[in-house]
Amino acid sequence: MSDAVLARNATIAEALAEAARKLDAAGVPDARRDARVLMAEAVGGDIASVLGRPEAILDDAARSGFDAMIAQRAARRPVSRILGRREFWSLPFSVDASTLDPRPDSETLVEAVLEHVPDRGAGLRLLDLGTGSGCLLLALLRELPNAWGVGVDRNGEAARTAAGNARALGLSKRAAFVAGDWGAALGGGFDVVVCNPPYIADAEMAALSPEVALYDPDSALRAGSDGLDAYRALVPQLPDLVKPGGLAAIEVGYNQAGLVSDLLRSYGLRVKSPVCDLAGVVRCVRATVEAA
C-alpha cells in the first residue's frame, strides 16, 4: 500500500503494518511492538484498544501524529524520547535530553535496597547520586512511606526534571533535588546511598545502539578509558556519606563488579553479595559501612 493511500483512508491495521515495515527497514528492534505503542498514543487509547479495533479508520489528526512519531522512531529516537516519558517500577517518569532513559535493569538496585531494609516503615534517609530522572530515589520512596531522600545530579536541568517527577508522583514533600558533584557538598548520616553512575569505557561508546548513543546524555554514559572514572570519584566519598550500618547500592556494567568491589574494600567498606538482573548479569554491587 502506498503512503498516499495510507494518508487518505488507512485503517489502524493497515497503518500498523506499514509502520512496522518502515521500522523493520530502519533496523528498529521490536518494530511491531513500538508501532502499537505509538499508535495508542496517536489515537489517545491503549494497546488493547488499538488491537481491539483494527478496522477503524484513522482521522487526519491521528494519521498525522502517528506518521510523525514513526518517522522519529525510524531515525532511532527511542519511544520514551518520543513520548517524553518512561515507566520504571510501574511508575511514570518524565524524561528529557538532560536525563538518562531509565532501564528496567536498574530496577535491580531498588530490589537490592528493599531486600536490605528490615523495616519498610522506618524513617530512613536516602541519597541518590547521579539522580537523572529521579527514578531510583522516587521508586524507593514509594516503597518506604516514612523515608526522606535527596537526589544529586551535576546537570541542574536533570535535577529540575527529577523534582517535577516527584511532584507528579505526590512525593515532593519527601524528596529534594540539587545540582552538585556527587556527594561532595553533603553531610553524612544516610541510611541508604544508591547510584547509577556512567560506566561505559571510551572504546565501547561506538558499539552502543543508536537509541543510546544518540539520545542519552554523553555525560551519563562515558566513564573514561576503562569505564571506572565515576566509581573512582564517588567511592571515596561513601564512608562519609553512609552511616554506620547503612548500605551503598551501586549499579555496575558488564564484568565491572569485581573491580568496583575491590575499590569499595580499599576504602573500608564491607562488600555484600552482588545482585543480578533478570538476565543473570551482575547489575548491583552492595556494601555497608561497619558500625563503630
From TrEMBL:
Pfam families: Methyltransf_31, PrmC_N
Residues binding substrate: 196-199
EC number: 2.1.1.297
Catalytic activity: L-glutaminyl-[peptide chain release factor] + S-adenosyl-L-methionine = N(5)-methyl-L-glutaminyl-[peptide chain release factor] + S-adenosyl-L-homocysteine + H(+)
SUPFAM superfamilies the UniProt entry points to: S-adenosyl-L-methionine-dependent methyltransferases
InterPro entries membership: DNA_methylase_N6_adenine_CS, HemK-like, Methyltranfer_dom, N5-glutamine_MTase, PrmC_N, RF_methyltr_PrmC, SAM-dependent_MTases_sf
Residues the entry annotates as binding S-adenosyl-L-methionine: 130-134, 153, 182, 196
Single GO BP term: methylation
Residue ranges annotated for the Methyltransferase domain, each copy included: 122-251
MF terms in GO: nucleic acid binding; peptide chain release factor N(5)-glutamine methyltransferase activity
Gene3D superfamilies per the UniProt record, alphabetical: DNA helicase RuvA subunit, C-terminal domain (1.10.8.10), Vaccinia Virus protein VP39 (3.40.50.150)
Record HAMAP family: RF_methyltr_PrmC
Protein family: Belongs to the protein N5-glutamine methyltransferase family. PrmC subfamily.
PANTHER family per the UniProt record, alphabetical: HEMK METHYLTRANSFERASE, MTRF1L RELEASE FACTOR GLUTAMINE METHYLTRANSFERASE
Function: Methylates the class 1 translation termination release factors RF1/PrfA and RF2/PrfB on the glutamine residue of the universally conserved GGQ motif.
Protein's recorded name: Release factor glutamine methyltransferase
Gene: prmC
